[in-house]
Amino acid sequence: MPELKASQLLTSAAKTAATWVARSRTKHVTAGATAVGLVLTAVVVATTGPWDASGQRKAEAHRAASQEAAGGADHDGAPGTRPGAPAAAPRAPAVLAAPGATVPAPTREALADVLDPLLKDPSLGTRRTAAVVDAVTGERLYGKSAGDALTPASTIKLATAVAALTAAGPDHRIATRTRLEKDAGKLVLVGGGDPTLTARQKNPYGAASLRTLADETAASLKKSGTTEITLAYDTSLYSGPKTHPIGPNENLAQVTALMADEGRTDDSNSGPAPRAADPAASAARKFADLLHDHGIRTKGGDPQAGKASGKAEDIAKVESPPLSALVERMLTHSDNDIAEALARQTAVAAGESHDFDGAGKAVHQQLGTLRLPLAGTRFADGSGLDRTDKISADLLTGLLAKAAEPGRPELRAVLTGLPVAGFTGTLSSRYSDEADASGTGLVRAKTGTLTGVNTLAGSVVDADGRLLVFAFMTQGAPGPQTAQASLDRLASSVANCGCR
């Protein structure tokens, strides 16, 4: 997010909210209240950070509180609640169930009148598909070649998220551990596939810390009288090629079961960055340095790849945040490393081979159990960097609608992790043009961009207060900026639509 003062964000939010309330004063009171809540949510995310200690977006709690103040949320008299108390706000399932159930959905004809002309914009390229679905009923209200499978780019991460949450569960945590063969004097650092493991002193996301693992390991070794060991590292959980089919790339590290800080060789936390040639070996060397700081010497030079024998015992471990938090971070920042890790975790949970092929099969299998439309799909990776990935607009909206179902709270992170237009993640610098600015703070969507490919899929609450999900996919666009602006305009038009 651009570096703006909180006061500037509040001013911007106030202007947007005022515009909506004024527009909605006579006919769309519900929409005005919802808009205020969503805009305030965006400000809270931008100024206080999107995740709390349990992995839920802080925005959801604050949004519920703001809706309560506006008369838009019902807490059902939950014990311990009091007016204006954000900590007592309902969690994501209750918040997301609020919009739409008591107001009618848009009509197909009215949506078509709004969207058909926009989809004809030549900036969208030679192929374009679209779908808009009522999140309350799951009914498709608008579609243009919605069943055609196109290259999704990063919107494939929605499929990766749903598959991982279905296979492993939202509370699953990924462990990194140390195992000791005492008789051989051998310590093995065992990677479990945690893509957020960090070796840095600053840890803003509550990720598992290699430093903590070194602290606990050193304490255990010293307790047993060991001050010198041979250190090895184990990446055997994953199989197959480590390098993505697109080759070495600053958008993605090697896909390995052990790495720290995504193999980044700078201090960045997201986006493209130089990566270590061998992230696992780099993490093991850092771990050795941390052990040295605690007086534990390692023998034989740099740590070597290896596995512990059956006589080895676990002596320490650290665990990632819950899978729901990893999903949110992946979607907000379009994090390719987390995406590939979650695809592999899906393969592990589903019993498929722990490589690119097995991950693709596992994702397909998990989505099939949810009876989602999979015709023409291909999951070549979990991140969307592979241009041979194929997904339809029907599948993208199906994923989002499934995540909104009241009976599937385990999938809620798919919605709460979506970037907020104009405020967070990959949408922080979009929705600035006058033609699409009305979607600021209202559109929550996953972006997808490759050369000639531009996609957008997410959720909105329309002007009547109905929760809708949408997907717009294009290929052959002459320029990414103009294509993205047209996609943003489409989403803003759905948000603004009182289409009855």
From TrEMBL:
It comes from the Bacteria. Pfam families: Peptidase_S13 (PF02113). Residues 55-65, 286-300 have a biased composition (Basic and acidic residues). Residues 52-91, 262-315 are annotated as: Disordered. Keywords: Carboxypeptidase, Hydrolase, Protease. Its EC number is 3.4.16.4. Belongs to the peptidase S13 family. This is D-alanyl-D-alanine carboxypeptidase/D-alanyl-D-alanine-endopeptidase.
